[in-house]
Amino acid sequence: MPTHDYVIDNQTAPNIRSDLNNALQAIVSQNSNATPPATTYANMLWYETDTNNLWKRNEANSAWISMGVFDESLGTFTPSGVSVNTANVLSATAGASWGAVGTYAFVRTLNTVSTNTTFADPGDNVAGSSLVAAGVYQQGSGNGFKSNTDGVALSGTWKFMGYMRNSQPSFFGFAARPNTLALRIS
Q1: Angle CA(81)–CA(85)–CA(87) in degrees, nearest 5?
Q2: What percent of the chain has pLDDT over 90?
Q3: What pLDDT shows up at residue 162?
Q4: Residue ranges of the domains in the chain?
């Protein structure tokens, strides 16, 4: 692919047309070449074809900044400076505050939400204002599970990872409050 100096010199009409086509080809191909363009401009992009690296020229037009690498066979892009591996993911997860975006929690509806309605299915997004953090414990021997008492409504939006049906029977006179696992998404 061509690179171009983006200067159209005075020349004959066929040569101008060729020069313009080469400039446009350089633009649409992100100056794709194994070597950087000879003439550079601040914020210019260059796709290095032998390494699949995408470069951006810095504001001072004095150096190239790697934006990341494409894996053409997998169709993926890995941004520069981002290292995603199991250790990094586990470390970030362990350092997350409870209830932060990207964390999971067992949840259930507030007591103010009707217990006679179908509430949500897996994949549904639910406002945290209608949910509280929950847990389960066994109520008696073999009598099923009961949610713990009301807490403070959650913030944000949560995606349900399981079903929550509020039409369950009561146990020992307590209305059943089914729980499900949810992921905070915002």
Answers
A1: 115
A2: 37
A3: 86
A4: 13-79, 104-184
